[in-house]
């Protein structure tokens, strides 16, 4: 589990570096798909990751407002602020948490029960999905996207 969170964080940092060379107007330009634009998609990834893990732990989920994060540095600062909580939960993960029940009452009147392990994998897949959208938008701008390759990132060191 931790390996794929680390992968997502590594690729996210690479996207931040990629964005540094893109004018703010392009980062905020409305795009087809995703949650609106490049910067808002990065914000959304951070916010959703933190929100789900807060929810699993029964902690308050105070939603952030994208209006307060209208440049790359502000989004990066939000990530730096929230990631320690996320990382602490991810690194403390153990097999006894895998099948704990999570009762989701956030959907309009619907109640669903899922396992913590399923929620964690959803969070991982959610970010990977949005990274694919960023890749499409990068190509639309005529820029090479960040590599999605897991191999070669040094996430698991061989014996």
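^ Assign residues to that structure.
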């Amino acid at each position: 589990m931790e390996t794929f969170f680390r992968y997502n964080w590594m690729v996210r940092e690479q996207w931040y570096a990629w964005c540094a060379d893109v004018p703010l107007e392009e980062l905020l330009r409305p795009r087809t798909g995703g949650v609106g634009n490049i910067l808002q998609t990065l914000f959304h990834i951070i916010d959703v990751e933190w929100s789900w893990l807060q929810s699993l732990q029964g902690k308050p989920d105070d939603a952030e407002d994208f209006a307060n994060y209208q440049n790359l540095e502000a989004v990066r600062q939000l990530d730096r602020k929230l990631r320690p909580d996320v990382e602490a939960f991810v690194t403390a993960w153990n097999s006894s948490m895998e099948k704990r029940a999570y009762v989701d009452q956030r959907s309009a009147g619907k109640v669903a029960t899922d396992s913590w392990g399923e929620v964690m994998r959803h969070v991982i897949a959610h970010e990977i999905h949005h990274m694919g959208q960023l890749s499409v938008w990068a190509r639309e701008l005529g820029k090479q996207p960040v590599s999605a390759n897991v191999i070669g990132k040094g996430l698991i060191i061989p014996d």
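The longest helix spans residues 116-140.
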